[in-house]
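Review box. Two proteins, two foldings.
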Amino acid sequence: MSNLPPLSLTTFPRLLKHHAEVRGDRPAMREKDLGIWQTWTWRDVLAEVRPLACGLAALGVKRGDRVALIGANRPRIYFSIAAAQCLGAIPVGLYQDAVAAEILYMFQNAEIRHAIVEDQEQVDKMLEIKREAPHIAHIIYDDPRGLKHYTQSELMSFEKLQELGRDYDAKHPGFLDAEIEKGTAEEPAAMFTTSGTTGNPKGVVHTHSALIDRARVACALENLTDREEILAYLPPAWIGQNIFSYAQALTAGFCVNCPEAAGTVTADMREIGPTFYFAPPAVLERLLTSVTIRMEDAGSVKRGMYKYFMDVANKVGGRLLDGKPVGLGERLLYWLGDLTVYGPLRNALGMSRVRVAYTAGEAIGPDLFRFYRSLGINLKQLYGSTETAVYVCVQPNGQVRADTVGPPVEGVEIKVAGNGELLIKSPGLLKEYFRNPGATAEVLTNDGWYHTGDAGFLDAEGHLRIIDRAKDVGKMAGGGMFAPKYIENKLKFFPFIKEAVAFGDRRERVCAFVNIDMEAVGNWAERRGMPYGGYVDLASNPAVYDLIRECVEKVNADLAQEEKLADSQIARFLILHKELDADDGELTRTSKVRRGFIGEKFGVLVDAMYSGKSEQFIETQVKFEDGRTGQVSATLRIADAKTFAPVKRAA
C-alpha cells in the first residue's frame, strides 16, 4: 500500500489536489480528437476543475444538490464529476443512449436542477423533458455543433461556465478550498442508477469512503501505480467505468485515455497500449469473432499456422501465466508461437501491454476465457454490483478458474442465506437508494448485510460460484432446478448466438428465444455461398436453424452432466425476427435481458412453443434510431432440439 496516497485523503477533491502537487507534470487524461491525442497533466486537470466548480457555485449549486452528467467518455465529463464533488454536490451519471422518458424519471425523482451534457442530442432531450420537469434551471453543453440558433435561456456553453467560474473565484478567494475542506468521507460522492430490469431505475448513493476504499483495495491487490494506462470506452454512467477510470485513477494517480469514437476503440487501444483493461464478455466475444472471421478468410498456410499454435497455446499458455511447471519443449513451442501468432494477435487487439484485465457483468464462456489467457493476457473474473462499488470477489494471480469469480477481496464477508441468496458485508456498500427508504430496507439489514439477489455458494477453496439471480431460480414441473440466466449464458458462449431468453419455470420443459449474431452468422453464410437480404432473412434460413440447433444440443449435453440442472435442457427454440433492443424495452441500458417483459411482449410465441406448434406469425412494433416507430412481421419457425439422459455420478 506504500505507493498509494495517505489515508488522510478521504475525498476525491483532496486526492485531486494531492496528485496535482505530487505528480503535477504526469499525464492524468488524454483524449483523441481529430486523430490527435490531447494530454492534460494532473496540474492541468485541477486547473480545469477549479473554474468549473466555481462556475457551478455561481449558478447556485450547493452541498447536497444533484448534478446530472450525460455523455460519452470525454475529459470534461470527468472534470465535471470532480467539480461537483468539490462543492459537496452529488454527480449523477445517466446513460447517453437513454431516451428522454428514461432520463425524465431520474430528473423528477432526484429533483435535478443542473445538467452537464455532451452535445446537441443530449440538449434536445433536456429541452424535451423540461416541459415535465420545469425545475431544470441550467443545461451546460460541451460540443456546440448544431446549437448556434438555440436561444433558450437555460443553455450555457462549457467555456462560458468556466469563464463565469474564474470571475467568481476572483471575487471569492479561498471559497473553493474551504468547500473542499468541508467535505467528509461519509458524504455522498456520486449517484449511480440501477439497470431497471423490473421497473424504474433506483439511484444508488455511494460515499467517498465506500468508493475510495474499494479503489484502494483493488489498487493494492493488483499493484496498480501511477504508470498505468487505461482506455475509458464504456459508458461513464456505469459504476464500473467510474471505478476504473475515476476512483482508481484518483487513488493510484494513473492516466485515463478517452477514445475518439466508439468505432475507433480497437485502433486507439493499439496506439495507447493500456496496461489495465476491463471488458464485459460481450466485448471479448466480439473481438474473438472478428479474429475468427479474419482467420477463416486467410490463406491455408496462415490458417494452418494459427490452428497449430493456438492448440499449443491452449495447452501451455494458461499454465505459464499461472506460474505452473511447463517443459522446455513446450516453452520453446510457445515462444515460437508468441513470435509468429500470439504477439501479433495481442497487438491487433490492442493488448500488447495489458498487465491486468478484468471481465464481469455476465458469465464468460470457458473457451472464450481460455482463449485470452492462452495468449498470455492476464484476464481474470471479478464479481460485484452497483450497490457494492464493484469489488466483492476477484481472482488472484495463480488462482484463476473459468467456473468461479474468485474469493472475497479484503474487507468483504460473504454468507449464504437459507434460500441460496448471497449476503455481503463490505466497506463498499451503498449508503442508500436515494429517497427510497423502503427499497433500502429491503436490501440492507440492520446489522449491515446486503442482499445481493444472486444465488451462489463458496466452494472448498473459498472461491465464489454464481448460479443465477435468486428471484429467477425456479423449478421445473418435475421438481428440478430452473436457472434461466445460467442456461442463457451457456447459449451465449457460442459466437453465433448474441442473446437468448429461456422459459421453463413451473413447466414440463424449457423453451428458448435466440438472437443470432449478425456478423458471425453472416460470415458463416457468406462462406457457404448462402444469399440473404438482412437479419430477418438470415434468421429464418433453415440452415441457420440447423446451426443454432447444434449449439442448443451442445448446451443440453452439458446440462445433462449437471445433476441439479439436467431437467432444464432446452426442448424447443425459435430464432426471433428482430434483435432485442433497449429502445424497445427488451434490454436494460446495461444490456441485461428483461425476461418478464419479453415473455409478455412475445407471449404469442411462448404459447406457440409450449402448445407444440411448428410455426407462428407475429407482428411487432419497433423503434428506429431516428425516433420513428414501425412494424416488423414474420412467420417464425419453431424447432425441436435433442435432449439427453442425465449422467449418473458414481457414489
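Next protein.
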Amino acid sequence: MVAATPARAMTCHTEWAPMRDGTLLATDVYLPDAPGRYPVVMLRNPYARAFGGGCFNGFINGSISPFADHGYVALTQEVRGTNRSQGPFREMVQEAQDGYDAIEWAAAQPWSTGKVGTTSGSYLGLTQWQPAILTPPHLAAIAPQITASDYHDNWTYVNGVFDLWFGLSWPAGAFVPDAIIRGLQSFAVPQPEIDQIVAQWSANANANLATKWVWQLPLTSFAPFTTFAQYYYDWIDHPNYDAFWQKLDVEEHWQDVKVPALINSAWYDIFQVGAFRNFAGMQKHGGTPTARKGTKLIVGAYGHAGDSGTPTFGSDGGLGSLLTVESQLRFFDRYLKGLDNGYENDPTAQLYILVPPDTGNKGSGFWMNADEYPLPGTKMQSLYLSSGGHANSSNGGGQLATDAPDRGGASPDVFKYDPQNPVPTVGGNMCCNGVLLLAGARDQSEVETRNDVLVYTTEPLDKDVAVIGPVEVKLWARTTARDTDFTGKLVDVHLDGVSHNVLDRIVRARFRDGSKLPPSLIEPGEAYQYTIPLGNAGTIFRRGHRIRLEISSSSFPHYDRNLNTGLINEWTHKIEVATQTVLHDQQHPSRLVLSIAPGVKAP
C-alpha cells in the first residue's frame, strides 16, 4: 500500500542511525518545507517490509509523515535486523538499548530542537515503553497504542498460560518472511527464487497453523521457527516470570518514565489489560509530576481484533483513528513544542462505550469523557453462581444472582476437561491472522451447548446496566489434577437469544497467587479460590438482556492446553483428563464481580 501524496510539500530522505555497537538502522526522515530546527516525532517499526519501508511508502510511513506538515520532523526507523537495517533481529530484548540510542541520535541532528516524542502501536508501542524505562534525556513524550506492560503476563503468557495462537501466528506472518528474504539475499539468491520460497512458507503456514501447528506437543518440539524465529524458544524456555521477563517488565519501572504518555487501547484488543495497567501505573507512579498529570487514556472498540460484525458497535474510527496525526497533535504540541494549550487539564479518559443490539448484529456506541478511571462513584457488584448441580451447557440450570448463597449445601457443578477435546475459541481479544481464527465479538451459542462449559445467567434485566471498569471472577473449585486451567467468559445475551462475548481470560492453577510469583502445584481434591481477572469492560447491558458467565478449562487454540499432569506444560506431551468441580455454597461463594458505573445511559 502506497501512501497518498502529502497535502503540502515536505522532503524525505533516508539516514543510517548508528547504535552504540556500530549497527546502522535505516531511518526515513520527513522534513517540513521550511528550513530550521523542529521537534521530532519518531516511530520504530519491525514491519517495514510488510507495510512499506522507504520514503512515502506504506501504511506505517503514511501514519506519521503528515507530522511534517505541522512543524515536526517525522522519523520512521526500521528496527535492528528487519528490512534494510543491519544486525540480527532479537525480538523484544533489543528495543530498550536501541530505542534509547535512536532517541538520543535524533535529538542531536541539525534538524532537531532536541525534543523527541514517540508514537504508534502494538510492537511499535513496545519500542516506546522499552527505551522510556531507561529515561533517555531527550525523550519528552510517548504515545503508545494498543500495547502491553508485562510481556510475560500480557503478551506471551496470560496468567501463566501460553498465548498459543499469538505465539505461533505472529512470528509466522509478521517476521519469518522478512527473515527468509534477508537470509537468502545474503547468499545472493535470485529474487524470483526468493519470492517463490516466501510464498511457499506463507502457504504452508496458512495451511497448517490451525490444523497441525497448534496441536503439536510438546511446544518445545515445534520445529518451523528454529531457523528464522529463534526467540519463540526463548519464550517457551521461560514459562515462569524470571529475570528474563523482569528485565522487560514496564510495571517494574513506571517511576523511571519521566515523560507523559498518551495511551490508546480498545475493549477488544489483545493487550488491553496491559494498557490499563500502564495508565494506572503512570498516573500513580510516573517519575515526574508532568508524567503523572499528563498521562491520558483513550479507549476505542476494536483494536487488533477488528470490527467482527457479529455484533458491530458502530464506528469508533477503528485502529486508523488511533494512528492519525490529528488525534495526537494537541498532546505533542504541549510537550514537544511547549505550547500552553491546556492539554494537561483535558479529560483524563476518553471512552467509547459499546451498546449491543437487541436483535440482529447492528449495535452502536458513544464517546464519553471522564476525569478518572474507573469512573467516579463506580461500585463493585457481585453476582453469585448457583445451580442445582447441573449448570452444564446453556440447557442447564446455572444462574447468576445478587444474593450470596445461604446456609446449607448447594450441589456443585462437575465437568470433565479433556485436553484432546478442548473448548474451541470463538472470538475474543486476539491477534494475529484473523482469517484463520476470528476475533472480536462473536456469537457464543454453539460453544454453550457443550457439557464441559458451565453456563450461569441472570434473569432479564429490568433496566440498563453500565459495566465500565475491571471485571473479575472469584471461582472456588476442586480438580483431580495437580495442575489445570480455569476460564471465565462474560457474555451479553440479546433479546433474540444471540449471546456475544464481552471479556474472557484464563488462569493456570499453579499461578493462582499471581503470575509474577513462583508457581506452586495444587493438591488434587482440595478446594482453592481462583481469581480470574477478565480485563476491563466498557459496555451497556441493555434492559431485557441477560448477563451470562461461562466457566470452563480451555479456549483453544487461543490458549495453550493445560495437560493436567503437573509437569511443565510447554515441555511435555503427556496428557491426563481432569474432573473439575465448581463450588458455589456458603463456604465457597463463587461469583462474578462487575464494575457498575452510575448514571451512564445509552443515548
